[in-house]
Amino acid sequence: MTTTANPGSSPAAPMPELAPAEVAQWRAEEAELIELLTRTRQRLGGVAAFRIGPRPTVLVTDPEAVQHVLGRHPERYVKRSHRARMLAGDGVLSASGDAWKRQRRMLQAQFTGPGMRRYEQRIAAAARRTADRWAGYAQSGERVDIGEQMRHFALDTIWRALTGHPLDAATERELDRIPVVVAALPQLPDGARAHDAVAGDLARIDAVAHAAVDAARRREDGPDGPGVLRDLLDAAEHHPEYTDRLIRDELVTLLVAGHETTATTLTWLYLLLDAHPDARTWALAAGPEGSPERREAVQALVSETLRLYPSAWILPRHALTDDTLAGHHVEAGTDLLVCPYLTHRDPALWPDPERFDPTRFTPGGTRPAHLGAYFPFGLGARACLGTQFALRESTALLELLLPAHTVDFRSTPAGAVWGITVRPDGPTPAVLTAATGG
After folding, report:
1. Most CB contacts within 10 A, which of 34, 234, 377, 433?
2. Which residues pair with 335 in a beta bridge?
3. Which CATH superfamily is domain 20-434 in?
4. In 3D, which of 268, 298, 307, 291 has the Cα closest to residue 426?
């Protein structure tokens, strides 16, 4: 069921709320939060509340209401402290207010439009490096973990963008602490004990970040020239708010946002292709290597994967003022959870929503037109800055790997882990085989 939203309508009705018995059952089952959100939407529609504390929390999945909250009125519905602040500090992901506006303006030119052109060679080099590694694995028959492979590729790519240098083995070992901290964040205790629990990992990440900043300050450019770090240091000459600490925070923010989500998306994609091998055949048959038709088909594979497993599966917001949402009253101080995962699986928007069908994202496909129906990277002013970068690197890698190798998983994860991202809940061991044709 999808509620037809009518933001701003009058008079506003009370917000429908999930029955306490449903919440009690969820607690008794010790189920994931996604189960409670799914029940709320199934029972009450695309804008509804549930109560697990003293105040109700409002779930938003209806596309018009999504557009109202994220797209039209970001000043009414704001982000509060981000779970990743302990790791990313005051970087653009967790910043707010005027500081966030300044930081976003600074970075926006780097990762959108013409700014993306400076990364094309770096993305291609990282993709070729992974393709060469896979060719060696296919020849040797060595078992590899697809998730780890995708993390290496995505980290190599963003590291090249930030520093101008390929990722070396020593740096990768230290930055492997990032996914460890990200995975731990939702389970960490409150207060100072939370920092203590990951202090060693944070120290190793900080050491890498500070070394990279120092190298950029010494203008030790990589083979493709300077990276984003140099631009941040140049900005510091005219904007005193860009202290070494803030530059460190932006670097770590971009490392977290720039590799964890892409790696997870690519891992899910290969798991989906394992269950739906005809999708690979379809993409490769769309056109010859390097053709616009094949690139469009590969992009459709990525887009459909992001529909089922969006990079940002849940987007918390906080209402600063009273408002009317979908005809219902929202009080100032209310917390909201905008959930792309559930919007993307709404059968009223997406026919047969659990089916992996990349043709939804080709001309004539069944993708809904409403902006609020598909937003794997968020929507509006706070949408992910790196959307173009993530899509380009994913497509560049898949254009090399899909025709060259088939992936034979030795086991596949049984489910998902619902943290900052939604990721497979176990290892993804596989053997690679050189493909014929393609």
Report:
1. 377
2. 57, 318
3. Cytochrome P450 (1.10.630.10)
4. 268
